[in-house]
Write a structure and sequence with these properties.
It is built from three helices and 21 strands. With 344 residues, it is of the alpha+beta class. Strands 1, 2, 15, 16, 17, 18, 19, 20 and 21 form a nine-stranded mixed β-sheet that branches.
């Protein structure tokens, strides 16, 4: 029993016991700093087609989302019987005023002829001339009113303002629409704009003609382009600067209203060592990590160059092939004994 009890006694101090850790080997790499922005793909031009002057019931809607239209194609029509009747009424009024004005004009001319012979007074001739001028003014006013009613009648037939595709259909026959209400929207995707906002400190980075890489999430495509334009002022509320990228899309394969990731490389490529982000504690521009030398863990501090997709890029002084602790790092102190397992 005494031998059995003594066999369970640990005579080695716990601080001298080798600690198990998992390590990876640092890899040589090249790092170039970059900026990433989230942008929105927008059409080159977009129009919301709807009445602008009258309120009426929708009679027909001739398009569906995805339909291609040409400039001038009829998109929808409205039930405008009231507008048509009003237009005809004003047209008749204009004809009546024109006939009356013509008669008074001839009468005024005859009065002027009688004035020379002394058969009428100057006052009567002036009254007829004034009456003719008043009728002429009334005729012009009626013609202007007729033009306004004609525009209302024209507003009953809604046409495509440019060649493009129908993006949305917002109303069906029987719906009541008012000025400003959209029945359908049309977009032109022959060229798309990728719109994004950058922090004010990145104003020099987003200069026009700067090369960018674009990842389109909807189609999982990678595009190379350049910045087309940059706003000259920042938004006073967010202190961000708007910039746009033009991308030609003759096949119309990029859906608008979707998200794109924009990356702009800055600076020059620099040699670095690449390690997992979980292998170091980053404070400011310095990274604290443990490397394995023999069977000891050594704490080192290295300058951080950057990080990307879960990988940390540190100063190349770390050295390629150096074993860096990934798991078990939180329990280590400098010069602790370890047993290292290489992570595959």
């Amino acid at each position: 029993m005494a031998v059995h009890a003594q066999a369970n006694v640990n005579e080695i101090a716990l601080d001298q016991t080798a600690k198990p850790v998992t390590v990876v080997e640092a890899r040589i790499a090249t790092f170039r700093d970059s900026r990433n922005y989230v942008g929105t793909i927008e059409p080159w031009i977009e129009a919301k087609v709807g009445p602008q002057m009258i309120s009426a019931y929708v009679d027909t809607v001739l398009v569906r989302p995805g339909a291609a239209v040409k400039k001038g194609d009829v998109v929808a029509t409205l039930d405008c019987r009231n507008a048509n009747a009003t237009s005809r009424s004003v047209a008749m009024q204009a004809r009546a005023v024109a006939a009356r004005q013509e008669a008074i004009s001839h009468e005024a001319a005859r009065f002027n002829g009688l004035l020379d012979g002394g058969f009428v007074s100057a006052n009567e001739a002036e009254q007829k001339a004034a009456q003719s001028a008043a009728e002429q003014a009334q005729l012009l006013a009626t013609q202007a009113q007729l033009m306004g009613t004609s525009l209302q009648v024209d507003d009953c037939t809604l046409r495509a303002p440019f060649a493009g595709e129908v993006a949305t259909r917002n109303s069906d026959p029987g719906a009541f629409v008012r000025p400003g209400v959209s029945i359908a929207s049309i977009v032109d995707r022959s060229t798309v704009r990728i719109v994004a906002n950058a922090a004010e400190i990145d104003f020099p980075i987003i200069a026009p003609s700067s090369a960018v890489k674009v990842h389109v999430f909807a189609t999982n495509r990678e595009l190379s382009a350049s910045i087309a334009r940059r706003a000259p002022a920042a938004d006073p509320a967010t202190r961000t600067v708007n910039f746009e990228i033009d991308v030609g899309d003759p096949d119309r394969s990029l859906p608008v209203g979707t998200t794109a990731d924009i990356r702009i490389d800055t600076g020059e490529p620099r040699p670095a060592c690449e390690i997992p982000l979980t292998a170091a504690a980053v404070r400011g521009d310095m990274a604290s990590l443990f490397v394995i030398e023999g069977n000891l863990a050594r704490k080192r501090a290295l300058r951080v160059l950057g990080e990307r997709e879960g990988r940390l890029f540190v100063d190349a002084a770390l050295g390629a092939g150096t074993r860096v602790v990934v798991q078990g790092r939180a329990l280590l102190d400098d010069k602790d004994r370890v047993t290292a397992t290489l992570e595959k």
